[in-house]
Amino acid sequence: MVTMESDAQVALRAASAGAAVVREMYGASLTRYEKGGGDFATAADIAAEEAVLDVLRAARPDDAVTGEESGAGGAAGAGRRWLVDPLCGTLNYAVGNMLVAVNVALRDAASSAGIVAAASADPFSGEVFWTDGAGAWVRGTDGRDARLIPSAGSRLVDLNLDPPFPHAPGFRAVELMAAPEFVAGFRPRVVSSTVAVAWVAAGRRAAYVTDGGPGLRLDSVHFAAGIALCEAAGCVVTGIDGLPVDEGAGGLVVAADRETHGVLLGLVGGGT
What's the predicted TM-score (pTM) here? Predict the structure, then answer.
């Protein structure tokens, strides 16, 4: 039976459940499961995903789910599908770096917004960034919610340097980081976790830039939650070509305001 919780409350609770597992297993000697191409999952990825799925199956038994580790479940053409990334930043986590996130998002084909609820949990700060599609908040360890307010004031820009680089040689994040025009106005950071996307919504980063293929919004377990958070908070979100992420060539430029977005888009080549 479907609970009376809102979809946003379910997303928040599911992400929190996964984050609790990630936090509990931190520092343990974890089995690795190779995926090829240098990518791998750990026992923590799998256990955290199961914790998330347990919440979703109990609260929304009729919805479909796609998990990074378990794949797609439910009807292929389901109107409502949950997207789960149980541990974004696996390599960070495996070497004792706490910069990771647990991402949960709900895609609803009946909504023009696409993603109607999402949560991104930081297992180690205890914060959960979440949205109901209309507004965006961060829930602190005291259980209180504070509205997310983007700001470019820090001038800090996170860059994803992980391969593959489908838009090279036209765009390489590492070259952007060294460009004189970039360093004159911004300060690069490298996190290698989508927790940085939530930080843009929260005003802790001016922007986030990553390469990548098309379709980052509607079907990406990695980015759907973060993009939904940023859009609900009022950030500017496009692909690296300046087009909507569902329509363009791919990649992602997320910025706190239009001015910052325009400068970065010009530097990566999408504004020319």
Answer: 0.93
